[in-house]
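Researcher: Let's do a round of design. I'm pasting the structure tokens now; please hold your answer until I've finished.
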């Protein structure tokens, strides 16, 4: 069954990314240091976390579902804070990977936590699997970019 309201879940993460394509970062390194395995895993995961919510309904009756929703909200706030910091500071490339509150690559970690919590709210093992696949690609790629940009 198709559940269009569940599309809100990936849409909230995608919004800042749409602005990113219009307003590219400043001082971005000329060559990207990508790994094919990580790129493929991230792509498969991203495809899944966008598509899967369309087929599951949001559940918010049980305590664990409410706790998962709070996890989604907190990780989304961290994600928006990171994007806000990036846009407020002239779209400096290194800010896409700089730690926030001691969290390494927060713009990679926070959407993964968000989607993992969403798998609980949606009661979807598929969302869980695609979130883990995305994490396998997205987090190591972001850590490599963080190291490469010399932020440490």
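Researcher: That's everything. Go ahead.
Model: Designed sequence:
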């Amino acid at each position: 069954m198709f559940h269009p309201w569940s599309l809100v879940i990936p849409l909230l993460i995608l919004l800042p990314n749409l602005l990113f394509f219009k307003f590219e970062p400043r001082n971005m390194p000329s060559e990207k240091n990508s790994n094919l395995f990580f790129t493929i895993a991230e792509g498969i995961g991203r495809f899944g976390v966008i598509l899967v919510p369309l087929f599951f309904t949001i559940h918010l009756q049980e305590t664990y579902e409410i706790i998962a929703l709070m996890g989604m909200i907190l990780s989304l706030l961290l994600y928006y804070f990171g994007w806000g910091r990036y846009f407020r500071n002239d779209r400096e490339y290194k800010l896409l990977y700089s730690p926030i509150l001691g969290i390494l690559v927060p713009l990679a970690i926070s959407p993964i936590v968000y989607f993992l919590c969403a798998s609980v709210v949606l009661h979807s093992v598929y969302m869980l699997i695609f979130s883990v696949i995305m994490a396998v690609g997205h987090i190591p790629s972001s850590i490599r970019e963080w190291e490469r940009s010399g932020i440490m």
